[in-house]
Amino acid sequence: MGLRETPRALWLLLVAAAAAFAAETKQVADPDGAWRIAAPADWKEQRAGQMTMVSSQDGRANVVVLAARLEQGTVEEWFKAAAAFLQQQIPNWKLLGSQPLPVAGRQGLLARAESLSNNVAMIGDYVFVKGKTHQVMLSCNCAKADFAANQLVFGRIIASLELTEGAGAAAPAPAPRPAAAPPADLAKVQWDNYVSKHCVFTLRKPQGWTVQEVFQPDPAMYAFSVMHPEGLYVVSHVHGVSPAGRDAAANVRLVLGEMFKQAPTIQLAPAAKTRTVGQKTVYLFEGTYTDARNQRRQFRTMVTGGDGLLLKQQLDAADGQLDKAAPLLLQTLANLRVAKNVFAFDEGGAQAAGQGQPQPMPVPQLVPRQLAGGWGSYAAPANWQQADLGKGQVIASDPTQQVYFVVANAEFITPRYAHLVRMPGVLVANFCRPHQAMELACTKGGHGTAFRFEVTDRPDLAQGLRAGITGGRPCSVEHFFYTFNHKGKPYKGVSLGWCIGNFADASFSLGHLTGWAPAAQFDAWLPTLGQIMTSYQMNQQKVGEYVADGLRKYHEGIRKLSDTISRNSEQMRRENYELHMQRGRVQDYTSYLTTRMIMGEYDYLSSSFGYVRGDPSGLYTPEGNLITTEPYGESVTRHMQEINSRQLYEQVRPR
């Protein structure tokens, strides 16, 4: 694809998105009624036995679905057997990773692999899921170079998979979608902040609406569409270097040509409005078309050209609803804010150029880098320095050590357990949101002060963490822009942060992906930082091994603790038993003394008679005989030992 063709492909993707993916699909169903998917309407369909394949018009991308009767075993066991078979059958087939994936209302498994086909590097996503009567494998395949362009379509096809598991007939086509309801009153709309995944723009959009976006640095262009959750309303925006140069009319012809390819039934209004402003010519036209579900839709499109740039903005709604939806869609466009110094053609960039401010820097070539121990990878400029912190953590900086990319974790102890940790520098805080934990960690560590945040909650990512990792533990995910002072200089930063607690509320951890730059250079560095941040990937197998090792150590610790408690319990039982017996012996001796005192009796030990008991009437042998003799005129008890201690009492145990 040439440089002049690339912008065309970018806004073509947005034209397709603006026509609403859900409305431009066709249903593909299993002849035996086991499954169905929604595929692009222009994709071709082929069947061979239990296998069904749908492929793009050019044949460069395809999706294969294979269904079979349910077999014994788990999804993981099925996947391992299938992976072994694929390695034998497909040249250079190599598994890149796998993870659990909720699909079709069940817990499935997603795997990614690469291979060679006719010396072309291929990549594929494989989905394995088991139903009540069938098991289904779905694979999405294309050339590795085309994967980024097809990833969105693949994801939507996977999300559309349903296990119908019928009795042998294909599932009936769904009923036509009802007419679009009027949009909510503009004053009652709740808005969400959206930050471009490439960090080139921010947008306030209606809550629950989805955003698709594309960005390329050279030739510069960005595009996005914002769509109602059910595809009822769509607004799209494309801005960048024109593939038609300064020919404004050619821009319009190019846009209309691609629109007619996407929707051949377009009927344009009789006349278009035009207006010339300086070098620019603005065209405004509207019309209607029939979508793949035989529903009439209405659109209104503005295209500008003549200054070497292309700006296309389009509103799309059900026929008759566009005027009612227009205020909401136009307000969404008005909420667009483009990062300064990223594009030379945006207002901020033009103003900076007029004031002699630093111009946008080209995005440098990024070089892939591997982290120590195989924990992950990312891409950064070749001249950047790197400090590998282990376990996927890294700090990378430019040669001047002023611009940073950081992936790190910080551990916090809650105040109720802080007294148990006697280590300097321990972070102490109750569970909090990521930006608050980030400020505390940076302030305590001497990395920054005077933080001011613009925060966007990410409940979608938090839900994913809860489903796959955290379970019932507290969890919070945010992305945030912020300003602060670093080493006495004003800085700006962007971070994706997550906090995960534990069940005992004893501690929590902060993880973050972060880009920092001096405030005056931040906007110019933002595209580069955005590409570095989005290039970061963890090795899922390594992470899985780490989690498994942590669980093994946890269970080993629990077992040792149980053994210790058992040993201590036995020792305590013996000690308590001994104390109980001691108390009993003391009580016996006390009772003996009390009885003897009350009865006026006393006991002796005699070498001649053994145990001797006395009372006011005299001394008696154990047999009860009265001792009357006094040998050698001495006292009868002279050589006897009175039982007057507990030790003697326990030795003799008088009766």
Write the layout of secondary structure elements.
Blueprint lengths: L4 H14 L6 E5 L6 E5 L3 E5 L2 E5 L5 E9 L5 H15 L4 E10 L2 E12 L2 E11 L3 E10 L3 H14 L30 E5 L5 E6 L3 E8 L2 E8 L5 E9 L6 H15 L4 E2 L4 E5 L2 E11 L5 E10 L3 E10 L3 H13 L2 E2 L8 H8 L11 E5 L5 E6 L3 E6 L2 E5 L6 E10 L13 E2 L5 H12 L3 E9 L1 H12 L4 E12 L2 E13 L5 E12 L3 H14 L1 E2 L1 H60 L2 E5 L3 E6 L2 E3 L5 E2 L13 E2 L3 H7 L3
Parallel strand pairs: 25-26
Antiparallel strand pairs: 1-2, 3-4, 4-5, 5-9, 6-7, 7-8, 8-9, 10-11, 11-20, 12-13, 13-14, 14-19, 15-17, 16-17, 17-18, 18-19, 21-22, 22-31, 23-24, 24-25, 25-30, 27-28, 28-29, 29-30, 32-33, 32-36, 33-34, 34-35
Globally, the shape reads: elongated
Q: How is the biggest beta sheet arranged? A: 8 strands, antiparallel
- Tally of DSSP helical segments: 11
What count of structural domains?
4
CATH fold-level name of the largest domain: Protein Transport Mog1p, Chain A
CATH class of the largest domain: Alpha Beta
Quick one: how many beta strands? 36
Low-confidence stretches: 1-23, 167-179, 348-358
Name the structural class: alpha+beta
CATH architecture identity of the largest domain: 3-Layer(aba) Sandwich
Helix content: 25-40%
In what range is the share of β-strand residues?
35-45%
**Computed CA radius of gyration, to the nearest angstrom:** 40 Å
Average residue-wise pLDDT: 80
**How many angstroms does the end-to-end distance come to?**
113 Å
Describe the protein's architecture and organization:
The chain folds into four domains: about 30-160, Mog1/PsbP, alpha/beta/alpha sandwich (Protein Transport Mog1p, Chain A); about 190-355, Protein Transport Mog1p, Chain A, CATH 3.40.1000; about 365-540, Protein Transport Mog1p, Chain A; about 600-655, no CATH class. It is elongated and about 150 Å long. It contains eleven helices and 36 strands. β3 and β4 form a beta hairpin. About 30% of the residues are buried. The model is unreliable at about 1-25, about 165-180 and about 350-360 (pLDDT under 50). With about 650 residues, the chain is α+β, with helices and mostly antiparallel strands.
